[in-house]
Design brief:
The chain is of the alpha/beta class. The protein has one domain: Rossmann fold. 32% of the residues lie in helices and 13% in strands.
């Protein structure tokens, strides 16, 4: 996990409440199918019949989740399902950088069956980026990815709460939390209507001190384990879903 910095930086606490025990709840929401959008990058189809691939892409949350997964199984137990997992987490990534990251992955390897995206939290404190602007950016990119990966399921992992928002004005925690909630609600509705999958990480609360690293931004080992389990629960349901992609409800994520 990243080392806590002693240098003072502008920011704001997400909460002052510190319950002693962690609670866990849902790990996902319904799935349906469709695809649309536009794109401009040519990529290769997977040459391995029956082999599946998952890309997990995003910001430092993905970077540190991979570190935690490597202590046990970076393939998350999906080898038995003939599926490999490719991690791509970039620390400090903002959403504008995700398209370039996606394009580079497309040029390097075959198209995957699943792409799980966890990104957007760093944009919430970006100067000049409103919630509406961020929502529109994410929606445009989702449509583009669905055009580039017409046979791929795009999965959105909800933006997490934080105990401390770096680079935010002091006292802006409640405003940023409302912005985060608006973005998650809008993207959940949008991606489910357009054939994707949404994972609701609401069992990771800023009130739960032991789920966060001492910097208040990244997750602790326990927090990362819960997040990874949310992802695994959702993906397991996708793998086991019926061929006609009928609606299903993902089970509760537990450790």
């Amino acid at each position: 996990m990243p080392k806590s910095k002693t240098k003072k930086r502008s920011g704001t606490d997400a909460t002052e409440n510190r319950p002693k025990r962690s609670r866990q709840s849902q790990g996902g929401t319904p799935v349906n199918s469709a695809s649309q959008g536009g794109g401009d990058v040519e990529a290769r189809e997977s040459p391995l019949q029956g082999h599946k691939c998952l890309w997990i892409m995003g910001s430092s949350i993905v970077h540190w989740a991979e570190r935690t997964a490597r202590l046990d199984d970076p393939q998350l137990g999906f080898t038995k399902h003939n599926m490999s997992v490719k991690w791509k987490g970039c620390r400090g990534l903002v959403f504008d950088g995700l398209d370039k990251l996606m394009d580079s992955m497309l040029m390097e390897m075959p198209k995957p069956q699943f792409i799980l995206i966890h990104c957007g939290s760093n944009d919430l404190t970006s100067e000049g980026v409103t919630g509406k602007m961020l929502i529109e950016k994410i929606q445009c990119s989702i449509l583009r990815y669905q055009a580039l990966f017409c046979k791929t399921t795009i999965i959105w992992s909800s933006i997490l709460q934080r105990r401390y928002w770096h680079y935010a004005p002091l006292g802006a925690g409640k405003k940023i939390e409302k912005k985060r909630t608006r973005v998650n609600i809008a993207i959940k509705s949008f991606i489910l209507k357009n054939g994707g999958q949404y994972i609701d990480n609401n069992n990771i609360s800023a009130k739960e001190v032991n789920l966060f690293h001492t910097d208040g931004t990244h997750l602790s080992s326990l927090g990362n384990s819960i997040l990874i389990n949310n992802w695994k629960t959702a993906l397991q349901s996708l793998i086991n879903s019926t061929p006609d992609n009928s609606l299903l409800t993902l089970p509760t994520a537990t450790l």
